[in-house]
TrEMBL record:
This is Multidrug resistance efflux transporter family protein. The keyword Hydrolase does not apply. The chain crosses the membrane at residues 31-50, 70-89, 95-116, 128-148, 154-173, 194-218, 224-244, 256-278, 284-304. Keywords: Membrane, Transmembrane, Transmembrane helix. The keyword Repeat does not apply. It comes from the Bacteria. Pfam families: EmrE.
Length: 321
């Protein structure tokens, strides 16, 4: 249950991404800077946190020992996650991007067979947790209901440039996150892992920013400030909270799916934020019904996770006796 609460809190800070990315696009800012500036700003904050926790040397030692997994899965989990999201913000409204992003709930469950679990000397291939998948589909129904009032405004161009990039991001984020957890096997804590992945993704962000200089010029002061806010809120606070929650349940696909499902609450925070900051009107009744279904799905995930925890504790008690 504690991991679920961490995930919901992370989604609150993640919501800032969708609101401010749309705000930056409306004001003429380029997605190239919206994506790269966030990770540039994350580095000093993360270094300070990890240094204070006396974990700098261990982090860099892990990076030097096996740079290839870091470069590959950081690119997948950070670059293929955030660059498509900011790109999509240029072609679709915030409600569409944040709504489609929730597909990551189902994507995370579907990815389960790509991972293994070591039990003693045995390597067991993970299976798709069907109950978690069914519950995730309940949440997906709620997300679809939220989008229905706006379907008349969706064009083919918006589908290709606003929806498909988000689907790429929806698979890339849980895949990169889980693969790095599997590679590290608990050798680094959450703060160190986020710092390491951010540093490993720097080559891509540097290339992207160089391309931005020659194509769109330097970012405006407003975009720099908003990117800094996104970096602190979504990049540092939300990412650390979410990775902390997934770290705690990394060996159980059902619980991991429940934590990843907490991202569905982002759309609730985005709608509220857009109403107050971007003056977006209150959603239609069918969209509000969708919000209710999302909340119901979250309760189902929490309840199922509680049942799993009870079973685990019962098995441990029997083994001890």
């Amino acid at each position: 249950m504690r991991e679920i609460l961490l995930g919901v809190l992370a989604s609150l800070f993640f919501a800032v991404t969708f609101i401010l990315n749309r705000s930056m696009e409306i004001s003429g800012g380029s997605w190239l800077w919206s994506s790269s500036l966030r990770y540039f700003f994350m580095v000093p904050f993360l270094i300070i946190i990890v240094y204070y926790r006396k974990g700098i040397s261990t982090t860099f030692k892990e990076l030097k020992t096996a740079p290839a997994p870091w470069l590959v899965w950081s690119f997948v989990g950070f670059v293929l996650f955030y660059a498509p999201l900011t790109f999509a913000a240029a072609y679709g409204p915030g409600w569409l991007i944040s709504g489609m992003w929730q597909f990551t709930i189902v994507a995370g469950v579907i990815l389960a067979p790509l991972f293994t679990l070591k039990v003693g000397n045995r390597i067991i291939k993970q299976k798709i947790p069907l109950v978690s998948l069914y519950i995730s589909f309940v949440i997906l129904i709620g997300i679809i209901l939220i989008q229905i009032p706006n379907t008349q405004t969706i064009s083919l161009n918006m589908i290709l440039l606003g929806i498909l990039p988000v689907l790429v991001a929806a698979f890339a984020y849980p895949l990169g996150n889980r693969k790095m957890m599997g590679h590290l096997e608990g050798r680094l804590d959450t703060f160190q892992r986020v710092l390491g992945m951010t540093i490993a993704s720097m080559p891509a962000w540097i290339l992207l920013s160089i391309y931005a200089i020659f194509t769109v010029g330097l970012p405006s002061a407003g975009q720099v400030v908003q990117s800094l806010i996104v970096a602190v809120s979504s990049g540092v606070i939300a990412t650390i909270l979410f990775f902390m929650a997934t770290d705690r349940v990394r060996d159980h696909q059902g619980k991991l799916a429940a934590v990843e499902a907490t991202q569905s609450t982002e759309i609730i925070f985005v709608i509220i934020g857009e109403m107050f900051l971007l003056h977006v009107p209150l959603p239609a009744p069918i969209a509000l019904a969708g919000l209710g279904i999302i909340i119901l799905g979250m309760f189902l995930h929490s309840y199922y996770t509680k049942i799993l925890n009870t079973r685990v504790q019962t098995l441990k008690s029997k083994n001890n006796t």
